[in-house]
Amino acid sequence: MWKLTVSSACIGSGVCAGTAPAHFAIGPDGRSRPLASPVEPDDIVLGAAVNCPMEAIAVTDADTGTPIDPPP
Amino acid sequence: MTQQDSATAVEFPIPPAPTLYHPAPQLAQLRAHQPVAKVTLDDGTTGYLVTRYADVRQVLIDPRFSRAAANAMGPGGAQTGVSMLAEDSMISLDPPEHTRLRRLVAGAFTARRVEQLRPKVRALVDELLAEVTARPHPVDLVEHFSLPLPVRVICELLGVPPQDQHIFHAWSDTVMSDASRDPDEIRSTIVKLGEYFGKLIADKRATPADDLMTALIAARDEGDRLTEKELLNLCFGLLIAGHETTANQINMFLLTLMSFPEEYQRLAASPELVPQAVEELMRFVQLGDSSSNGLPRITTEAVELSGVTIPAGSVVLTSALAANRDESVFSDPDRLDLSREVAQHLSFGAGAHHCLGAQLARMELQEALSGLLRHLPGLQIAVPDSQLRFKSGMILRSLETLPVTWQHEA
Ligand code: HEM
Ligand code: SF4
Predict the structure, then answer these.
(1) Which of A32, B174, B242, B292 makes an SS bond possible with B189, Cβ 3.0 to 4.6 Å?
(2) Residues 28 to 57 of A: which have CB under 8 A from any B CB?
(3) For residues B403 and B380, what is the distance between their CA atoms, to the nearest angstrom?
(4) Is the ipTM of this complex over 0.85?
(5) Inter-chain contact A19–B359, Cβ cutoff 8 Å?
(6) What's the rounded Cα separation, in Å, for the pair B230 and B260?
(7) What residue segments make up the domains of chain B, in order of their start?
């Protein structure tokens, strides 16, 4: 399983929510948050993380804590 | 706000605004009374024009509003260079196909990577403005500053040789023109751009360099992550997307600052306001005319917005100009306030297609504005607004020339 976090660097571009709407949504504060975590591994989550202009999304292995994106 | 309201006939396209500095008043009317307005498009079909901040943001982010479907249907009637170029590029794809292409280039445009380019861009700004100050007054800033800056930045990033950069100006003008331009001329220009980049790609395959084009070629050749056509489109798409927009944003920033002299004075006295000022100017300036809207979306199912049910398969247009003046989000929205703590403006769009070059454009605009304050104190535009000449038939306000004077330092 993957653990998803969004850091305070988020500027609310909506890239992640538009790319992976099952995994991210923009909250009332205008910033993104994961809809659930941990989640089943899914390539679209990595697409959202890579496409985040602020590199605000971290995907890690929920059991080991090993970084998946950004890569270690 | 009700179905009935949205049925009232709306003049469309929205007539041109009476000033360069504010949207047409019709947009505020729509925002208040028909936030999701039924309009008749060029080809006679019905579309929906969305003007409220929250609704525009939703249309841009929510995957039920599809760019790919809009591209497949070719809605909105007349073709422009941008719509033709868009046909084969990421702006016309939905996730996950869109995601595959965008992630190949996203790394080069993150805030962190862009920050690493800042010293180079600042040096380029200093170099261009030193040349400007060596010229007799008035100096045309379009030719000597606002156009060469973004062209040189994106060419450097891609790895386009400096000696070739001048040939893009005419090509880019043609591609950025509106529906009044001969479609065959636009098509032949796109073919020329393709041939140019095809040759450059061949050169870089033979002699790799430390640039984005070489990295994309490797993604194609080693990773097989994009087709040859996609590679070509990405390269010239990036070149076109980034240059006329940023150049004219610099011009519109200056025109807007000159028409709000107290705000300009405040900025000149406190240059540390520049980053905030850039965001407020991005929100405020009218880069396009009120009649222009972002690229269309099509609903993949029925969606309700501000109480209006938009049926499945409808063309939806968004007005960022209207959304950026929404009083429910920006207090006193028609006032330029360079120290405003802004909510995210919508001038770079939102969602999966949020401008790839947003961080780069921001940084360039910050450096351009700081540089102009540093090098050209007491800047003035040498002609009245009525004598400003905009290129005709462009999808954004594109100045032919911007003659300026300034105070020489003692
Ligand atoms: C002030 C300057 C700029 C403005 C106002 C601007 C505005 C925009 C807007 C509004 C969109 C979204 C269009 C839509 O969703 O329909 C967009 C997309 C895009 N912009 Fe910019 N842009 C600017 C500069 C740049 C620069 C410097 C680049 C250079 C690389 C660039 C590359 C792109 C690309 C590739 C897209 C498509 C992204 C996608 O489909 O995922 N832009 N831009
Ligand atoms: S892509 Fe990044 S910056 Fe944009 S909303 Fe998502 S987390 Fe925030």
Answers:
(1) B174
(2) 30, 43-44, 47-48, 50-55
(3) 9
(4) yes
(5) no
(6) 44
(7) 3-405
Residues B30, B32, B33, B38, CA torsion sign: positive
- The string of DSSP codes covering B84-112 is HHHTTSGGG--TTHHHHHHHHHHGGGSHH
List b or e across B213-222, with b for residues whose CB sees 16 or more CB atoms inside 10 angstroms.
Answer: bbbbbebbee
Domain boundary assignment for chain A = 2-69
pLDDT, one tens digit per residue, over B354-395 is 999 999 999 999 999 999 999 999 999 999 988 998 876 666
Q: Tell me the CA–centroid distance for residue B83 and ligand 1, in Å.
A: 14
Coil, helix or strand at residue B404: strand
By alpha-carbon position, which residue is closest to atom 4 of ligand 2? A13
Q: How far is B71 from chain A (nearest CA, A)?
A: 18
A-facing residues of B in 81-100 (CB < 8 A) are: 95-96, 98-100
Fold of A2-69: Alpha-Beta Plaits (3.30.70)
- Among protein residues, the one with the nearest Cα to ligand 1's atom 41 is B353
| Angle at the Cα of B16 from the Cα atoms of B33 and B78, rounded to 5 degrees | 95
Rounded distance between C-alpha atoms, residue A16 and residue B351, angstroms: 7
